[in-house]
Every structure is written in structure tokens, then in C-alpha cells.
Specification:
Blueprint (H helix, E strand, L loop, with lengths): L2 E4 L3 H16 L4 E3 L6 E5 L3 H11 L9 E2 L3 H7 E3 L4 H8 L4 E7 L13 E5 L4 H10 L2 E5 L11 H8 L5 E4 L10 E4 L6 E4 L5 H8 L19 H11 L8 H10 L14
Parallel strand pairs: 1-9, 2-9, 4-7, 6-10
Antiparallel strand pairs: 2-3, 3-8, 4-8, 5-6, 6-7, 10-11
Length: 270
């Protein structure tokens, strides 16, 4: 049986956070408000809990969940390298609506899905979410909706979609911004914008100096079949600033951070 707490009441808020922390530690699911939409979360280091999260949403391992953290230090422990601009972006935009994709720390024992050795991380600008995250540690969090359905802006909407698959609902009132977070890939030599969102591209460029996007990748004419392999090698060697993530990977990150549409332009979500 799910439990919902009205976090506008101080006593309920305290009880709700305590219950949510216990639920996460038991490998159960919780719903929490963020600065964008409501999210469904699980302990990032409990594979069965992450699997339960994906099942609750009706999605597969090919769309792994991003990770929300309660501090910059927690994020730094999860990644192998922030790259040249990662710390500058964090200093400027965290907590807030910026998700960064980095190479994951290879020593971590977790299984978020088919991540290709990367992790998408964000520190939300929402006090209740931060309070919970500082108690639980990093959580795998995706938008609190069934795959293909509209994202939830209230705890009631989340409960209507997810029901008893979630143990604890933290009701923080209407939540979020209609714009999703901006997603920047830091796994290549040059930062790449995977999804335009709440942070204007111009602001990101002010910090990074240079920011690649899909517009920087005009599709070349297909080479003859016999030359395909050599052409691929040449393209790989000539695009030193390009992200090692494939086009399919970038679309996965654009959707796994909250959106569930199969369209090229994801709807507003996390």
C-alpha cells in the first residue's frame, strides 16, 4: 500500500522524508518533486530497485535512468572525468536544470541499464529533493509517468499513473518548469549539446566557449560500399571533438532523462 505525505505540513514533511529514506534503503521506489517535474526514484546502487523503476515506467534497459545527487561532491565520486569544462558548468548552473553526461567511475558497483559506460547526472534546484538526496545518496530518477504518457506535475498525477508500484509519494505541491533540463555531453574533447532545455544555449556557450550541436554535423554523402570501412575510419580520426556516443545514444539520453517520446524533439520533461 502506497503512502503519500503532504510536505507543506512540517510534521508530515519530516515523516515523509524519513519514510522515503527507509523505503529507498529497502530497495523500494519513491516519488519526489523536483525543479522540473515529479520524479520516480530508486537507490542507484541497488540493481533490483533500478529494474523495478524501469518496470514501473514500462521501459527497457536501453533507456537508462539519469542520476540525481544532493551535492557536487557526490557527483564527482560517480564520474571518471568531468572533462575540461565540467566543473565550470557545475559551478555556474548547479543546483539547477543542467544534466551532464560523463564517463562513469569504473569502480562503482551499479547497474543503471545500457549506459555504454556513461552516466547522466543532475543536482536539482529543489529543497525537498535535496534533503532526500542528502540522506539517501545518489538516486536513479526518471520522470514519474508511464512511458509515453505526459509527465506528472503533481503527486496526484504521479500516483494515478504509477499506483502501488511506488511505496512513498512526497507531495510538494505543483512542481517544476515546463522546460526540461538542458543536457550536455562531456565525454568528448568538446562539449556537445544533446538536448536544448531550460538553460539557453547561449548561456552554456558563455561558460564552455564552444558547444557542438546537431547542426555541426551535416550528413555526408554515403560513400561507395567498397569504401565504407575506410570512410568510417577517416571520419572517426578527423572529428576529434566529436562525442564518442552514437546518434542513437544521444537520443537515448535526451529521452531517458525524463521524456518518453520517440520523436526527435522530446516534449518538456525533466
Amino acid at each position: 500500500m502506497s503512502r503519500r505525505y503532504d510536505c507543506s505540513d512540517p510534521l508530515e514533511r519530516t515523516k515523509g522524508i524519513a519514510d522515503a529514506v527507509s523505503a529507498v534503503r529497502r530497495g523500494e521506489l519513491v516519488v519526489l518533486p523536483t525543479d522540473t517535474v515529479y520524479g520516480i526514484g530508486a537507490d542507484a546502487f541497488t540493481p533490483s530497485a533500478v529494474t523495478a523503476l524501469l518496470d514501473a515506467k514500462g521501459r527497457g534497459r536501453d533507456m537508462p535512468s539519469p542520476v540525481l545527487v544532493g551535492s557536487v561532491r557526490a557527483a564527482q565520486a560517480l564520474v571518471d572525468d568531468l572533462g575540461t569544462y565540467g566543473q565550470d558548468l557545475i559551478d555556474e548552473f548547479w543546483p539547477g536544470a543542467l544534466t551532464i553526461v560523463c564517463r562513469a567511475n569504473t569502480t562503482l558497483a551499479w547497474d543503471l541499464g545500457d549506459t555504454k559506460g556513461t552516466v547522466a547526472i543532475r543536482m536539482p534546484l529543489h529543497q525537498l529533493a535535496l534533503e532526500l538526496l542528502k540522506e539517501t545518496g545518489p538516486m536513479a530518477v526518471s520522470s514519474a509517468n508511464r512511458s509515453g504518457a505526459a509527465p506528472s506535475r503533481t503527486a496526484e498525477e504521479a500516483e494515478a499513473q504509477l499506483g502501488d508500484s511506488v511505496s512513498v509519494y512526497l507531495d510538494g505541491g505543483p512542481s517544476g518548469d515546463e522546460m526540461p533540463s538542458s543536457i550536455v555531453d562531456l565525454t568528448g574533447a568538446v562539449p556537445r549539446l544533446l538536448r536544448a532545455g531550460a538553460i539557453p544555449e547561449e548561456r552554456l556557450r558563455e561558460v564552455c566557449g564552444v558547444l557542438l550541436s546537431d547542426e555541426d554535423d551535416p550528413a555526408p554523402a554515403a560513400p561507395p560500399a567498397d569504401d565504407q570501412k575506410d570512410a568510417t575510419k577517416a571520419a572517426d580520426s578527423s572529428q576529434g571533438g566529436r562525442s564518442p556516443l552514437t546518434e542513437a545514444d544521444t537520443k537515448t539520453f535526451a529521452s531517458s532523462e525524463g521524456t518518453d517520446s520517440d520523436k526527435d524533439t522530446p516534449p518538456a520533461d525533466r
